Structure formats: structure tokens, C-alpha cells
């Protein structure tokens, strides 16, 4: 079983079409990885599916980096 | 051909919605038609199976967000993700503005406009995952040219047009098209409710000198839903026999 970080990273790479080494912990999806607003929505959709959870809109807005995604999932998943 | 596609048509028990459902089915799509009552849903299932089509009728109140979520989950499980959505459900509550009740205004906005927002939002996730989709909203010539006694209806129908253009811009990059069809006066229960003199007067203003048939609208929907609609988005197709030319 791969770690949460690896699973999130894989989704970011797939959704945003970027290289794995670009997805550092604090790289901003929008500013550094070139995501537009719809990409971020899709990214959250993909995370919801991967981790079988529902991320409320107000929480989703705060997820802008790999580290933040990982932190949210760790805090909200048992 | 639309073989293998799942199409969702609201307000499909009669009139324009029924013609749309049957025409999409004739092109090979699996069609789910919705109606506000169980009786209406059964009627839809019956005419679809009579036509040898795949699909079913479902009971759905398009103003009920929870019910939309539940019914959509049910459809997805039974038939697959709908990638064609036809927002057709609509009602009239005509009155002069001076006499209009808040209720008449609110009913129309909820059923004719907010439903388009809710249904589109609910179906988008599936379309994004499927990497494509077609949303076709049924507005009205009245939303484009106005009509005395229908401020509420015209506002909702014009609202649909603005909504569609904006959503078309949002999701275009995901290969999802959003278009509006604005029917003129079509021979359905809705227009049969008009007084005979008004119907005659209307017909005189139509260059093709007849009311439209539900099938006239259905063919346009099928066009937009199929290959013909690949590069068309954010548009309003005015299917009105020429009564209003834009």
C-alpha cells in the first residue's frame, strides 16, 4: 500500500499533466503547476474518489498544495 | 448515432419532452425520462419499451436537490453515467405583472430555471469523468422576444440562455457543450391552453404558417446531441418557424 503522499502525488501528476518531481510539498497547484480553477475542482473530485470521502467546498478551497491535501486527508480519514 | 450513450430528459411524459426522448432513443441512446409523478414515469417506461428502446421513466421533482442526487445515483447504477442532459421540464403560471403573486413568480423560477442549475451541476461530475458531454436546455422564443402576461416565464427562459452561455465557457475545455433551444409556439398541451383566437393570431405571425410539432424540436435536440453538435457551444438555436428572427 502506497502512502497517502504517494497516492495524492500520483493524482496531481495525472490531473495536471505535470512531472512527478515538479510536485513538491509546497508547490502551488495554481501558481507553480499551472492549474486553472476547473483543474482544481477536478483534482478535488479525483481525491474524493481515491480516498472515498466527500470534501466540503469550503475545505476544498483551502487545498492548494500537496502538503495541504495530505494534511486534510490525514486529519479527516480514519 | 447515439448508441451506447445515456441520455437524461426531464419532463418527458408528454409534449416536447416525450418527442425528444423518443427521437434520442431512435438514434440508439439509452433514455431516462423524468416526470413529476409515478404515473408519468410509468407512461414513459411504457412508450420507451413500445418503441423498443432502452431506458426507463423515473419520478423526479426537479426542484428537489436531494431527490436529484438520489435519482441520478440510481440511474448511474442501472444504466451508466448520463452524458447527454436535456433540461426540458417547464411550467407556466401566466399573469399580468400587476396581478402576479409571489408564488407564481417563485414557482416558475424554481421549476424552469433553478432546475437547470441543479440538474446541470449534478450531471457535470459524471460528464467530466467521461471526458465529454452535451447539455441541451429548452428555453423559449418568449425568453428572447418577451410576451405580455409571461414576465415570470420569460425571465426564467432568458435566464436559461445566460446560464448556458456562461457554463459553456466554464466547461468547454472539458469537451462538454452547453446549448439552448428556444422553441416557438409548439402544438402541445401548454399552447392548447391558449384561447383559439390567440392561436390563430399567432399562426399568422409565423412565416412557415403553422405551429411547430414536438418532433421539430426533438430533431434539433438530436442534432446537437450527436456528431452535428461537436463544435457548437453556447448557442441558442431558435426553432420557431421564423416567427422571430434574430
What's a concise summary of this model?
Chain A is an all-alpha fold.
Overview of this protein structure:
The complex is a heterodimer of chains A (78) and B (246). Chain A is built from 4 helices and no strands. Chain A has helices spanning 4-16, 37-50, 57-60, 66-76. The longest helix of chain A has 14 residues, at 37-50. The mean pLDDT of chain A is 92. Chain A has 78 residues and is mainly α. With 246 residues, chain B is an alpha/beta fold. Chain B contains 9 helices and 7 strands. Chain B has helices spanning 15-26, 38-50, 65-79, 102-129, 141-145, 151-171, 189-192, 196-204, 214-225, and strands at residues 6-9, 30-35, 55-59, 84-87, 133-138, 176-183, 236-239. The chains are: A mainly alpha (78), B alpha/beta (246). Chain A binds chain B through residues 38, 42, 45, and chain B through 125, 128-129, 170-171, 173-174.
Amino acid at each position: 500500500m502506497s502512502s497517502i503522499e504517494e497516492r495524492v502525488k500520483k493524482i496531481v501528476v495525472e490531473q495536471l499533466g505535470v512531472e512527478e518531481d515538479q510536485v513538491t510539498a509546497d508547490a502551488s497547484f495554481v501558481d507553480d503547476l499551472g492549474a486553472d480553477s476547473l483543474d482544481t475542482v477536478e483534482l478535488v473530485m479525483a481525491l474524493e474518489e481515491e480516498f472515498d470521502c466527500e470534501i466540503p467546498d469550503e475545505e476544498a478551497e483551502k487545498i492548494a498544495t500537496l502538503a495541504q491535501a495530505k494534511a486534510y486527508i490525514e486529519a479527516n480519514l480514519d | 448515432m447515439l448508441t451506447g450513450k445515456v441520455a437524461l430528459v426531464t419532463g418527458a411524459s408528454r409534449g416536447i419532452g416525450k418527442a425528444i426522448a423518443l427521437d434520442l432513443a431512435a438514434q440508439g441512446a439509452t433514455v431516462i425520462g423524468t416526470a413529476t409523478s409515478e404515473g408519468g414515469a410509468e407512461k414513459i417506461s411504457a412508450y420507451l419499451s413500445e418503441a423498443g428502446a432502452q431506458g426507463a421513466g423515473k419520478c423526479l421533482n426537479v426542484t428537489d436537490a436531494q431527490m436529484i442526487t438520489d435519482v441520478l445515483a440510481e440511474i448511474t447504477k442501472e444504466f451508466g453515467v448520463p452524458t447527454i442532459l436535456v433540461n426540458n421540464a417547464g411550467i407556466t403560471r401566466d399573469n399580468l405583472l400587476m396581478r402576479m403573486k409571489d408564488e407564481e413568480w417563485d414557482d416558475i423560477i424554481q421549476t424552469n430555471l433553478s432546475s437547470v442549475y441543479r440538474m446541470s451541476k449534478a450531471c457535470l461530475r459524471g460528464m467530466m469523468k467521461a471526458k465529454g458531454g452535451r447539455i441541451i436546455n429548452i428555453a423559449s422564443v418568449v425568453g428572447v422576444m418577451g410576451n405580455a402576461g409571461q414576465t415570470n416565464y420569460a425571465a426564467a427562459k432568458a435566464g436559461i440562455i445566460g446560464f448556458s452561455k456562461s457554463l459553456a465557457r466554464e466547461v468547454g475545455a472539458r469537451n462538454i457543450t452547453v446549448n439552448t433551444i428556444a422553441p416557438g409556439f409548439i402544438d402541445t398541451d401548454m399552447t392548447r391552453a391558449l384561447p383559439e383566437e390567440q392561436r390563430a393570431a399567432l399562426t399568422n405571425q409565423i412565416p412557415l404558417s403553422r405551429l411547430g410539432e414536438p418532433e421539430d424540436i426533438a430533431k434539433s435536440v438530436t442534432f446537437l446531441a450527436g456528431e452535428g453538435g461537436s463544435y457548437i457551444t453556447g448557442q441558442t438555436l431558435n426553432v420557431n418557424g421564423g416567427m422571430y428572427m434574430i
